[in-house]
Amino acid sequence: MNRIITVSREFGSGGREIGRRLAEKMGIAYYDQEIIAELIKRTDFAEEYIRHMDEKNPIPLLPITTARTFGLPANNGLEQNLKFYMQESKVIREFAEKSDCVIVGRCADYMLREMNPVRLFVYADMESRIARCRKKNKDAETLNDRELRQKIISVDKKRARYYQFYANQVWGEKENYDLCINTSRFSEIKAIIPGLEKLVK
Amino acid sequence: MNRIITVSREFGSGGREIGRRLAEKMGIAYYDQEIIAELIKRTDFAEEYIRHMDEKNPIPLLPITTARTFGLPANNGLEQNLKFYMQESKVIREFAEKSDCVIVGRCADYMLREMNPVRLFVYADMESRIARCRKKNKDAETLNDRELRQKIISVDKKRARYYQFYANQVWGEKENYDLCINTSRFSEIKAIIPGLEKLVK
């Protein structure tokens, strides 16, 4: 069976960077935006809808006005969401079956549970996450600290709801992961990759 | 400043073994029962009292009958506990100031917070912990699974109360640690030491 590493991460914690660098170091595939690209390619969901739905709260789903924007009847939101989840799940499973890989976000730890992935959770305190967003994220330039904090909280809330809905587990609860890394301490991501590689091998 | 690694651990998770092996691998000091031995040597607390108090619930403290056994007035429990904590804290601080080291349990992560320790938390699911206790702990032989489970829960409850009381933080909450390791996944402790060493260096 392939060696699968899933990376769940708080927004601004550097989890994506850990995933990318780890895959690079191990010489294995890395899937993050690639999942979205594949969904765009193979499903008839509109690209905007896919981006709107990705790791977002599945319920109470699209408000009527948003649904109309996407040309969907307002009351079939749940069905639509489940269809989206099934498609995303299928893409992720195919990636995982192809070769060893690192997969970021999207409930992959739960979706692939019978493949026994090593499940990482990356987190950090708010101060470090704000600092990291300022350093890495261009969008952050237009926001003051209070707004950035709000954004971080809001993205995480959506991820938590998505995870709760599909995995029926609490997002970020350490019992659902094999290794939880606080990057407030390990701020230099590059430095922790060699140790991490040894641990997950 | 010395490199300090603190290991908090759920009972039966293998945290003590991780601490011991990590110290061995890094060639640095290891403190666990050594803290008790030092307290016995340098304080006028009775050895039984020290063993009774170690990492146990500090409040509501000794019931009257227990206090009498140790020859203490029943109503000065809190004062006595604080005195014990101060002494333990002093021993731990002296150890930490002497050289690089690994310290297991006893709120050391909090006691030494201004020395910026790398704070590990080791945990595992109940099934793995029962299995590990059966393998490692002679006392476990006399207990059936239900009793062993009760013991595990009871020891952890005491550790949690001790931590909550002295550190005013939630024991096991990942935000209070730099790295949380689920040994249900990494059951072969020996195998994870090289990676861990690299991470905490």
Structural commentary:
- The structure is a homodimer of 201-residue chains.
- Chain A has 201 residues and is α/β, with parallel strands linked by helices.
- The first copy, chain A, has a single domain, classed as P-loop containing nucleotide triphosphate hydrolases (Rossmann fold).
- Chain A contains nine helices and five strands, in the order βαβααααβαβααβα.
- Chain A has helices at residues 15-26, 33-42, 47-53, 64-69, 77-98, 108-111, 126-136, 145-167, 189-200, and strands at residues 4-9, 29-31, 101-104, 118-123, 179-182.
- Chain A has a five-stranded parallel beta sheet, with helices on both faces.
- In chain A, helix 1 (15-26) crosses helix 9 (189-200) and helix 7 packs across helix 8 (145-167).
- The model of chain A has no long low-confidence stretch (mean pLDDT 88).
What characteristics describe this protein?
homodimer, alpha/beta, Rossmann fold, 5 strands, 53% helix
SSE blueprint:
The structure is a homodimer of 201-residue chains.
Chain A: E1 4-9, H1 15-26, E2 29-31, H2 33-42, H3 47-53, H4 64-69, H5 77-98, E3 101-104, H6 108-111, E4 118-123, H7 126-136, H8 145-167, E5 179-182, H9 189-200
Parallel strand pairs in A: 1-3, 1-4, 2-3, 4-5
Helix pairs in contact in A: 1-9, 2-5, 7-8
CATH architecture term of chain A: 3-Layer(aba) Sandwich
State the name of the first-level CATH class of chain A.
Alpha Beta
Strand order of the largest sheet of chain A: 2-3-1-4-5
Strand content of chain A: 5-15%
User: Assembly type of the shown chains?
Assistant: homodimer
Regions with little confidence, pLDDT below 50 for 5+ residues of chain A? none
